[in-house]
Amino acid sequence: MPATTPNLDRLFRPRAVAIAGASTNVDSPGHDYVRSLQVFGFEGPVYPLNLKADEVAGFRAYPNLREVPGEVDLVISCVPAGAVLDLVEQCGATGVPFLHLFTARFSETGDEQAAELERTIERRAAELGVRILGPNGMGLYHPAAGLAFRPDLPTDRGGVAFLSQSGNNAVEVILRGNARGLHFGKVVNYGNGKDITPGEMLRYLADDPETIAIGAYVEGVPDGRGFFEGLCAAAARKPVVIHKAGRTSAGARSAASHTAALAGAAGLWSTVIRQAGALEARSQEQLLDLLVGAALLPAPKGNRIAVVGGGGGRSVQSADACEESGLEVVPLPADVREKVRERAPQLADWIGNPVDQSILAGSGVSSNGLLEMMLASDAYDLGIANIGEDWFLGRPDAEERLRHACNRLMAAVKASPKPVAVVLGPTETTNARYRAIIDTVRDELTAGGMGIFYSVERAAFALGQIVARNQGRE
Amino acid sequence: MPATTPNLDRLFRPRAVAIAGASTNVDSPGHDYVRSLQVFGFEGPVYPLNLKADEVAGFRAYPNLREVPGEVDLVISCVPAGAVLDLVEQCGATGVPFLHLFTARFSETGDEQAAELERTIERRAAELGVRILGPNGMGLYHPAAGLAFRPDLPTDRGGVAFLSQSGNNAVEVILRGNARGLHFGKVVNYGNGKDITPGEMLRYLADDPETIAIGAYVEGVPDGRGFFEGLCAAAARKPVVIHKAGRTSAGARSAASHTAALAGAAGLWSTVIRQAGALEARSQEQLLDLLVGAALLPAPKGNRIAVVGGGGGRSVQSADACEESGLEVVPLPADVREKVRERAPQLADWIGNPVDQSILAGSGVSSNGLLEMMLASDAYDLGIANIGEDWFLGRPDAEERLRHACNRLMAAVKASPKPVAVVLGPTETTNARYRAIIDTVRDELTAGGMGIFYSVERAAFALGQIVARNQGRE
């Protein structure tokens, strides 16, 4: 493979899209793809291909690609596996550069005839100059270009790219990431992915001005060297998080029947990811946490962390989590202690880092005030601010107090150039009022651009990994 | 300490309670304790002690303990530290066996005078035969006895005991545990805890018929041998989960200023916990996951796990999580494969363990059907059933389909004597409709007695630890 940037512009921003196997059945993928273009406001012509229907979801339908009255950059295939070869011929004959095969049941079934059909399709497409995305993948989600593989996904646009071998994992990451404030640019579920590979897409995304951070979920790669080159190119320019699945023998067996991937040794993968300067996630949760840390927070300059919020027990647990994640929980320095003494002399020798919120009550110093003092001190490189919402929930005016504290916190975080992870716990309560309060406040913090984590442990993990990766690059 | 069961019955089931420092200010602990007894339906007399008020929260108030017209088993102290010694004298004079000191600002402040006052109080109480719970702790939550340290906590009763050195951690565990279906019996936040120690309480809970499982959050213990003996006694009779905090140097420093605890070496603690036959949690999240696994699921007989649900990518990740947690992801055995062949011949050689839900569509076999077949097979000891809710959310009749699948799943789980962890992801979406659907269905599963986990990774961790602990005891 050449080291030049691959030309995938028309894949990610097609001027016109045709959907083979478009369906009038509203509960089918062949309908969803057409509806998605509508919902996401795709600006070019949309051509459903259907032998019987006159229109699908309000768009005029055509019996096949040859009857379509304009140039097409991308064909999305929902036809059965047996009909794909003819579709490839149609693409070749009409000059379509990109064919996305949502169509599945190829090599991943373990059936040799199905695998042979996949190879034949790839060979013929290569001869005709048609690039293939998939098969066995949901394809493209790129709201800025009006593309989505499901009409109910979030329509907001952003700069986080995500490459996923698995479709359900792509949907989960989009939905859950969106709730965390991650706004996506180019998302690709590439399935078996042997023609357009994740390595090629990483090389493309490395130079893509829209993309500010990249995540990838990989079960196996057909081209190890190409993947490594793409990973190095991308990680040299922006944060990249790799979630490698199929690390164990059971996982590898499962990957073979999912995307026909050869999963490969876990230890080797960790080394490769680290050497390339990327971050490694070992679960979807870690992937999301690392993307939130890398995409929403400024890069940390060192590992000395200021921790505020929550009661005494939480402070002990937070200190453990930070230190076990490679962060240094530096004791309160003299300059901060003097500032505390001016306002609350009785606390000056007792208060520590992590700051125990419960001993501040009535002292004239708030945990937000302490966070400001600590972020202003040269002793700290980064911070974790724990809301400690359970304390507020017990008070009569819980919502007002909680919102007031969060607004002050946001102001403090925004005023500092240092990264601060904000922790607001999961909505784990049977109390519907509490649930609504926590969800609402979390949405407000997220909308305000905060990087929100569900626990101090998860925030510490993400920050620790990001610091280690940055230090490794210096 | 003697090895006999300590007599703490009157502490956990006092016949009458007095609250020293009871307050008419509704936003104060001195009011909350009185209100809590009311809300939780405490059946005996309640005596607020207040020099000025005639009544507090509807109960007649008395100027001091000597004026109270009946016997008192438990005094809750919200008075300042300087007033405690006099209260101890009053307890001694009136024959009160238990004094709970919510009062704080003793040795945990690092101030030598405050530490000396604490020692004086303990010495004098011992002379007078008054047992002390605390100081610096919120005390007792025991809904079955009408006791609680906050009026807004859940009032339902159960058999899970929890000992916590930290108060905010106790509140979080109660609220979050309740949302997970953990119904609590005796919960104690014992703070500095040097008289009534966690070791003594563990010995008591070992023989307590109400208690079916025990969790403990410990920063440090004043009496290592007593703790170990209590832990061994309890873990020999019921599942015990220990969350030891203050494992790192920063954590230990923080623990000293929180509860004056001497935190001690992490490695030694892990060994002690394992030797006693208890389970070790390294975060609150792990504590809750282990309690859900130990208290809500039958004990597993081995480590061979059946995994169903979610798409292909999830299956790969689930296999990794199980194998990395010490569970054996046994391939589908011949007996199950033959049952699949009868109903869906095209899947019989493709389907594996974990079961990829996405390839079952339209096959006549559901993932619940497969779970039933796998649980019925001798090849498996336990299971994980992943709801895979994100797939349902994309369909037009999401809620009906999801509820139908969950009801079938519950029936399958209840029909089997093998433990099955149910996974329903976190409510991480900005879509309010999706949020409501997930929360409602989770509440229904929890109310149905299912052990719910937020991710396959967390379920696998908990099951893996429980299996290893049971195998270690054989």
Description:
Two copies of one chain form a homodimer. In chain A, 61% of the residues are buried. The longest helix of chain A has 18 residues, at 398-415. Chain A contains 17 helices and 17 strands. Chain A has helices at 9-12, 29-39, 84-94, 112-128, 167-179, 198-206, 224-237, 249-259, 266-275, 284-296, 312-324, 334-343, 367-376, 389-393, 398-415, 432-447, 456-473; strands at 17-20, 46-49, 55-56, 59-60, 74-77, 98-101, 131-133, 139-141, 160-164, 184-189, 213-218, 240-244, 279-281, 305-308, 382-386, 420-423, 451-453. The first copy, chain A, has two domains: 9-294, Rossmann fold, CATH 3.40.50.261; 298-473, Rossmann fold (3-Layer(aba) Sandwich). In chain A, the strands form four sheets. In chain A, strands 8-10-9-11-12-13 form a six-stranded mixed sheet, sandwiched between helices. Chain A is α/β, with parallel strands linked by helices. The model of chain A has no long low-confidence stretch (mean pLDDT 93). Chains A and B meet through helix 5, helix 8, helix 11, helix 14 and helix 16 of A and helix 5, helix 8, helix 11, helix 14 and helix 16 of B.
